[in-house]
């Protein structure tokens, strides 16, 4: 029998990547209890029958929260903020200009900074054995990241300390994790972006999430 207790369990699958860190970070910002299943990328652990049934994409992170099963790091961060963090200001109220700006930042970061650029660099540097050598793609992805990151730089310089202004939100979790990832890939960041990264990763919730995101 599937008990109500089981349905109320909160479980986060995935560890050790910038994308899994996002979900751990929001859970810690919210102070929510959760269990972890620290499966790793490219270990075969995302391809087990148990995990594939939960996420046919075979990708981490994946959140189970009671009856909700959700993939995609930005969706998880936003779902958690909307469900549990509106009073804490972790997402702006629905149907406001600030909420529209929140979505704009989330989609911008996930496409222009994560998928189109950093992930392309990773594929053709760290993962050459799988995706092949593609120096032109790496060069243009690097240039693309630097150009698009200027927008974050200017926004923070004009209206920081966070991308939406005074309040730290889920959009900052997405942006800061991309900036940390960029540093690891040796993509240069401006002084404004480095200060922002330092400011956001000094948060206690980040530090706790960083520990929770270790692969065991
Ligand atoms: N857009 C997705 C990307 C998820 C993704 O690609 N995750 C990688 C790890 S960062 C993964 O699970 N790859 C499968 C594997 O390597 O086994 C998100 O942001 O959640």
Draw up the topology in text.
Blueprint: H1 4-7, E1 10-13, H2 18-30, E2 35-37, H3 49-54, E3 62-65, E4 68-71, H4 73-84, H5 97-123, H6 128-131, H7 135-159, H8 170-184, H9 191-201, H10 204-212
Parallel strand pairs: 1-2
Antiparallel strand pairs: 1-3, 3-4
Helix pairs in contact: 2-4, 2-8, 2-10, 4-8, 5-7, 5-8, 8-9
This protein binds glutathione (GSH).
In N-to-C order, the SSE pattern is HEHEHEEHHHHHHH
> Which of globular, elongated, flat, extended, rod-shaped describes the shape?
globular
**Please, how many domains?**
2
**Spatial extent as radius of gyration:** 17 Å
> Can you tell me the CATH topology of the largest domain?
Glutathione S-transferase Yfyf (Class Pi), Chain A, domain 2
The overall pLDDT average reads: 95
Which residue ranges are poorly predicted, with pLDDT under 50 across at least 5 consecutive positions? 1-6
Strand content: 5-15%
Structural class: alpha+beta
The helix content is: 55-70%
Helical stretch tally: 10
Strand order of the largest sheet: 2-1-3-4
Query: How many DSSP E strands?
Result: 4
Which architecture of the largest domain does the CATH hierarchy give at level 2?
Up-down Bundle
The first-to-last residue Cα distance is 31 Å
> So what's the CATH class of the largest domain?
Mainly Alpha
Please characterize this protein's 3D structure.
With 216 residues, the protein is of the alpha+beta class. The protein has two domains: 4-89 and 206-212, Glutaredoxin (3-Layer(aba) Sandwich), CATH 3.40.30; 97-203, Glutathione S-transferase Yfyf (Class Pi), Chain A, domain 2, CATH 1.20.1050.10. It has ten helices and four strands. It has helices spanning 4-7, 18-30, 49-54, 73-84, 97-123, 128-131, 135-159, 170-184, 191-201, 204-212, and strands spanning 10-13, 35-37, 62-65, 68-71. A four-stranded mixed β-sheet has the order 2-1-3-4, with helices on one face. It is globular and about 45 Å long. The two termini are 31 Å apart. Residues 1-6 have low confidence and may be disordered. Glutathione is lined by residues 17, 19, 41-42, 46, 58-61, 72-73.
